[in-house]
Amino acid sequence: SPLLYSRGANGTGFVFTNANGLNFTQMNHTLPNITIFATGGTIAGSDSSSTATTGYTSGAVGVRALIDAVPSMLDIANVAGVQTANVGSEDITSDILISLSKQINKLVCDDSTMAGAVVTHGTDTLEETAFFLDATVNCGKPVIIVGAMRPSTAISADGPFNLLESVTVAASTKAKNRGAMIVMNDRIASAYYTTKTNANTMDTFKAMEMGFLGEMISNTPFFFYPPVQPTGKKDFDISNVKEIPRVDILFSYEDMHNDTLYNAVESGAKGIVIAGAGAGGVTTSFNYAMEDVINRLGIPIIQSMRTVNGEVPLSDVESNSATHIASGYLNPQKSRILLGLLLAKSSNITEIASTFALNTNA
Ligand SMILES: NC(=O)C[C@H](N)C(=O)O
């Protein structure tokens, strides 16, 4: 069961909580209550050098240290911490995603005293977890996913301010009914569309065509638009889901070999996403191999794109939408999460195709 901590706005120390909910008896009752779910990553990273932004240990410090590093968050909200995992985000698994989503649904959605959730996470796969939570936590309370590009021991570590801003957005009534959001580098971004665009720098999370939802100025959120959800978004109830079927991503390139597809299927993939060249492109020969796998084995294949921007329209994946499925505006890693969630419910290719079609201009 998760480790739970909380403490009062007046700094009166930790209040024990039980696994069914949080005891906020020593809290400042004029403030909203927020739970932070820590999963590891650079935001919890540590290194002996204060200038190292590579080669450090991810997930070295726990949720209590993260909260302790930002005392001013207790002027914004009563805060509880749950240690869901403590790993580099490359080691986040679909089992962790299922348990994180269930924890948020139980401890935040089902608890009327809770205003919102913050998830601390490594940045490398943050967009995948953000997409998963956007799809599976749907109670209208803000869910904010946050990371850092500099470890906690670096000069000007970005984690503490990012965490303060995330708690602030999660506690804001203006943040309700907008789906999950990524808050980093003074920007509020859509979990659905935002991707990591730079491997190293702090200004990395962007949805270049769709833009940001808002900004943080002096730790105050400003939303550019009223609450809105992405056009193609589908909500999932995963309360009965125990496992997400395996979905592999295959990268398209000149001379791509068909056996990459057959190997994936033989190894147990129940769905495939192609990071296609341009608008979903693969070699002519690979196109025949896809046709074979779809028709003979009934395995859905989503054609996405290896470019950072753009759309794979249905008209670009040939044939009809029930056999070749276009990812629309979803990149391969987000398409993989969506296909996994759909396969956890049903392997009906027509249903899968119609969900992806919501993301295309068809
Ligand atoms: N900036 C980071 O968080 C990168 C780290 N490797 C992670 O994703 O866990």
UniProtKB/TrEMBL annotation:
Stored SUPFAM superfamilies: Glutaminase/Asparaginase (SSF53774)
Active-site residues, record numbering mapped to chain: T42, T123
Domain L-asparaginase N-terminal: 33-227
Keyword list, A-Z: Hydrolase, Signal
Tagged with keyword Signal: yes
Organism ancestry: Eukaryota, Fungi, Dikarya, Ascomycota, Pezizomycotina
InterPro entries from the UniProt entry: AsnASE_II, Asp/glu_Ase-like_sf, Asparaginase/glutaminase-like, Asparaginase/glutaminase_AS1, Asparaginase/glutaminase_AS2, Asparaginase_C, L-asparaginase_C, L-asparaginase_N
Binding, substrate: S89, T123, D124
Residue intervals of the Asparaginase/glutaminase C-terminal domain: 246-356
Keyword Hydrolase: yes
Enzyme class, UniProt record, top EC level: hydrolase
GO molecular function: asparaginase activity
EC number: 3.5.1.1
Reactions catalysed, as given in the entry: L-asparagine + H2O = L-aspartate + NH4(+)
Originating species: Penicillium steckii
Stored CDD domains: L-asparaginase_II (cd08964)
PANTHER family: 60 KDA LYSOPHOSPHOLIPASE, L-ASPARAGINASE
Any one GO BP annotation for this protein: L-asparagine catabolic process
Gene3D superfamilies: 3.40.50.40, L-asparaginase, N-terminal domain (3.40.50.1170)
Name of the protein this chain belongs to: asparaginase
Family listed: Belongs to the asparaginase 1 family.
